[in-house]
Design goal:
alpha/beta, Rossmann fold, 8 helices, 8 strands, binds S-adenosylmethionine
Length: 254
């Protein structure tokens, strides 16, 4: 159960992370509110301290850049509530949460021009300003990073391409770096089928051709990562509040 301190912090964070999307248009703002408010992964990244402090973050398939806005909002809220200057009306940072990470650099890569346009319209005022590249994660070179985030993206590319992207991510990550990979678990029965069906519909509406999805069972995702030399934390179920079968894999380089 979410306590009242956490609830008011999350509500302030949601307002703060969505505000930059207002100039990008009604759709961009509403989409940001729906996704950041409804997807459990954004809270989990903060409350579990999954993004290291001072990280160079690489976000593959970044959509309209919600993660960049979320992390910037979190750091701003954290500084206001506990650290630099106490703002009396700012909600407290929950005591059981780790500090909000300061992002040193944020690089998002996204295939869809409309998403990149919305991200650029919204996020130009953030500090540091996220770098957004329009391109295919199969082709765009990855710069050195400390955290690579791939949320609900890899199943759009075929299996050899998935493996190639993961190998390039491993090569780009600094020692001690972390890959946060959210995937659907193809062995999860009905919840997986529901995720897949919703994915087809949403992807089609977003302007992709009706996609063929390339899904794998959780155990296959885990073995690819182990083969690449990652150490895996226990996979975190990451579809609370939805009927889906998503898992967040936390893969670290020693
Ligand atoms: C389900 S959305 C997730 C967006 C974002 N990661 C999030 O969690 O909010 C998947 C995103 O991956 C993008 N995508 C799919 N294939 C891609 C590729 N080959 N290269 C870059 N982006 C891709 C889609 O356009 C879409 O924005």
């Amino acid at each position: 159960m979410t306590d009242s301190v956490t609830k008011s912090l999350l509500s302030a964070l949601l307002d703060r992370a969505c505000a930059p999307y207002r100039p990008a248009g009604r759709f961009a703002w509403r989409f940001a509110r729906g996704k950041l408010g409804g997807d459990p992964v954004f809270q989990a990244l903060l409350e579990r301290g999954l993004i290291p402090d001072h990280a160079r973050v690489l976000d593959l398939g970044c959509g309209q850049g919600l993660l960049a806005s979320w992390l910037t909002a979190a750091r701003g809220q954290y500084e206001e509530s506990v650290q630099v200057r106490p703002f009396p009306n700012s909600p407290a940072w929950p005591e059981h949460w780790p500090i909000a990470p300061r992002v040193q650099d944020f690089h998002g890569v996204e295939l869809m021009p409309r998403d990149v346009d919305r991200a650029k319209a919204a996020l130009g005022g953030l500090h540091p300003r996220p770098r957004l590249t329009l391109g295919d994660i199969c082709d765009v070179p990855f710069e050195p990073c400390d955290a690579a985030v791939i949320l609900d993206v890899l199943h759009y590319i075929d299996i050899p391409a998935q493996d190639a992207v993961l190998a390039r991510v491993r090569d780009a990550l600094a020692p001690g770096g972390v890959l946060l990979l959210r995937v659907g678990d193809a062995s999860a029965g009905l919840p997986f089928k529901i995720s897949n069906w919703v994915d087809h519909v949403v992807t089609f509406i977003r302007g992709h051709r009706l996609p063929r999805l390339h899904c794998r069972a959780l155990i296959e995702w885990q073995s690819v990562l182990l083969r690449l030399g990652f150490q895996l934390d226990a996979g975190l179920p990451m579809s609370q509040g939805t009927p889906f079968a998503n898992v967040l894999l936390v893969a670290r380089l020693g």
